[in-house]
Design goal:
This protein has four helices and five strands. By secondary structure, the protein is an alpha/beta fold.
């Protein structure tokens, strides 16, 4: 299950998580974002209970979008212990996200 994250709950959901977190920065009007969306959903199902998978609508949440310097979407940030440890910009196959996620679960 993916979690919708906002400027208001980002710190609680992402930064304070005791699990690795993937954050998908997206927008409704973004074509490549619509390609990444189902992949992110699959990852949330595949790693349920092991990883938090969050989505941030960049149009509705400008503060967190600006804080992390998101200029291109889709951008997926990988967090561990509240810190960004990896990043993927643009639409890529599921295996690319899973490869970046693997080391975070150790």
């Amino acid at each position: 299950m993916t979690v919708d994250v906002t400027d208001q709950n980002f710190e609680e959901v992402v930064k304070k998580s005791d699990k690795p977190v993937i954050v998908d920065f997206w927008a409704e009007w973004c074509g490549p974002c619509r390609m990444v969306g189902p992949i992110v959903k699959e990852i949330s199902d595949d790693f349920e209970g092991k990883v938090v998978v969050a989505k941030v609508d960049v149009d509705s949440n400008p503060n967190v979008t600006q804080e992390y310097g998101i200029r291109n979407i889709p951008t997926v940030l990988f967090f561990k212990n509240g810190e960004v440890v990896d990043k993927q910009v643009g639409a890529v196959p599921k295996k690319n996200y899973v490869a970046k996620l693997g080391p975070l679960m150790l």
